Amino acid sequence: MSLTATIARAQGTQAWGEVDLVALFPRVALTTPIVVRSEPGPSTPDFIGSGALADVTLPWNATLTGGFLTVRLTQHKATLVQLPLVAVSESFHLGTITAFDRNRVEQLLGFGTSPRRYRNRLLLDAPLDHGAWHLFGDDEEFYDFSSRAWTQNRARLGAGHQLAERAVVDVYYLRKTVRPTTTHVVGVTVRIQVTRPRQGKTSAE
Prior knowledge:
Elements: E1 2-9, E2 13-24, E3 28-38, E4 47-58, E5 62-73, E6 79-94, E7 97-107, E8 116-128, E9 133-144, E10 149-164, E11 167-178, E12 181-193
Antiparallel strand pairs: 1-2, 1-12, 2-3, 3-4, 4-5, 5-6, 6-7, 7-8, 8-9, 9-10, 10-11, 11-12
């Protein structure tokens, strides 16, 4: 089980809390994520999500992911969005840099016109100081099948430090573009591994 907490600052401050319950099998990892997003104060959380994901290890450092998530958007009159998804990820090395390429297709059932999207994300992670520090960056493009256009981009750059055996803190800058609007975000993420992970290969984020 892992805990993730994120504080992000854009036009306002938001807190993201996430708990992942993970069951590991020889070639399959089953995950139940629980995510809550809220703004400071006593207001009701404006984003609550959960569901189930299955990661299947494939040859050549690849992973197949399938899942179904349910999200409640309280800021949109309590809209309930159901999100089936499938993704294929591959990891490879460029010297000391580890690269992850993820291709994901999802549909947002119940949100607007229930758009179907393709998402491609390339993440690069470089360890520093024998792994105590790391630099990372990723870029993700969104293609909307209904509008037949690339409609969104998320580009992130940051650095992180291993606080303890099971705790990592990351600080990052994120530029989010939902064309034509661009939002600039500064965020801090703390990840804590509550139970000791089983030795062996696991899928990328």
